[in-house]
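Raw record, unedited: LysR family transcriptional regulator, nitrogen assimilation regulatory protein
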Amino acid sequence: MLASGGAWGERRLDIRQLKYFIAIVEAGSLSLAARQLRIAQPSLSQHLANMERELGVRLLTRSPRGSTTTAEGQVLLRHARTICASLDDCLREMRDLSDAVAGGVRFGMPPSVSMVMSVPLAETVRLELPDIRLRVSEAMSGFIKTWVDDGTVEIGFLYDLTGVAHFEITHVLNERLFFFSAPDNWPLQTPPGTPVPLRDLAGIELVLPGEPHGLRRIVEAAAAEADVRLNVVTELDAMTQIKELVARGSGCSIFAPAACHDVVQAGRMIKTPIIDPVISRPVYLVRNRSAGQSRACSAVAAVTLKVAAEMVRRDIWEGDLVWTGG
């Protein structure tokens, strides 16, 4: 039971009333909400009337076309959603803290990491942790940082640690970046697989993400260090489209082999390592220290590190392994 005092006196609401109110607003009408909640419409109407009487305000404006929230109703709706979500999180965390390693784990991955990690991780979790429901969501690293911060995901991979001092951080590997081209569009004098100095890529038409993208910043920083001016003719922030353009011979690119292991295996692209300087980016596994850590999340984190290490050892995820915990 929730109670409030002050100038209005004591007002009492329970979680069921808040959930009913949310359902009415989201359905847009009492009749539809009643059907969705599987309760009689007169009973739902009575619940709403009791809430309005207890609070001393009108929460909804009714019309033949449905119901709309008043200003007071909007305030209640915002807080009701927060309260109900917090209660659901509380119950989930208490369940997850039981002896059984079970429950849901939400994982955020950048697209290039997901291409190499999501399938083997899902298979391993399913085999070794059958009572855990793993959900993997893809997004750019910056979005994943926000998701870990606000609890949208419990665990994630990041390339950049700016502003995440409050996270629990594991440095997994340093991922090497390579030069890629279509087999019939190879622009270099040296054969594929032969390390190429970055200066030899000056003038070659490149397809890269736009400037705010972390990969682009790393490539441009390396080029500046080597005093090389890159010829970026097309900017695309979607890795799938970059790979397709390169495979079709419409430009070359620089990115991590993990992003296109399947395309290289199919013979649609070829690659060569870059030297002078070697370009790499760190990959971190992160969790929010301030959030409750369930046994399920801890178990998935441990499995993730082992799967990542195996991918590096098998040269599926090309880079230098930093984590040595197992």
